[in-house]
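Memo subject: From amino acid sequence to discrete backbone structure tokens
Keywords: amino acid chain, backbone geometry, structure tokens, three-dimensional fold.
Body of memo: The sequence and its backbone structure tokens, given next.
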Amino acid sequence: MKKLKPEGIEFEKWCDRWDASDHEHKIIMCADSGITYGTGMNWRSSKQEKPENNDCLRELLEPCEEFHLDFVSFDIETSNLDADFSVMLSAVIKPYGQAPLVYRADKYPEWNACRSNDKGIVTDVANELAKHAIVITHYGQKFDIPFLRAKMRKHRLPFLPPMFGIDTWRIAKNNFKVSSRRLANLSSYFGIGTKDSVDGSIWMAAAYNGDTEALNHIVEHNIVDCQVLENLACLSFPFLKSMPRL
């Protein structure tokens, strides 16, 4: 007569006997329990094993504690669109639901001595971005990430680690029939934030004159972009079919 699988301590004892038995005695155990050998194997595999030593698990995870398996919105502002004709003016990395991390070129000593040298800000932005697994951008796989990579190579910085990217521009392109897929238009249409524009003269004043007030406007614009980007990512996430490597 077929028996029900034992439970609790009885099942623990049954599993211990199974582990201590050779193949012949396992067949006898199954016959005594009124089950087939295949069912006996299923019984044994259903037991949830507990790690014998939590220190081993801690040791495996310890080297990765500096990395955060989260989503971050990422946006940069530059003096031009190509890395070899431009410098990074500011960057924002915003972990989901948290305050943004803001980087601005005028906080580095190179800003006053040689504004064409953006190694300081590029280094800090790359080091922080490398800690995160999933990066949200808008057209970032065409601009923000390639621009950053070009600057990193220029300044002989280490490669970014393997990361995944969510590009809300690409999601919009594949799923939303709208007049423009620019972040400003999408934020206005979906009512997820107000994205303002910055006059070209402000960019010129910041990049070429080192105007702090002008850079303030650019940084504020950068922060708003990242917040709008986070909102757009939440709205777009149900349409995400895959997450490509950056």
About this structure: The first helix runs from residue 8 to 20. Confidence is low (pLDDT under 50) at residues 56-61. The chain has eleven helices and five strands. The radius of gyration is 28 Å.
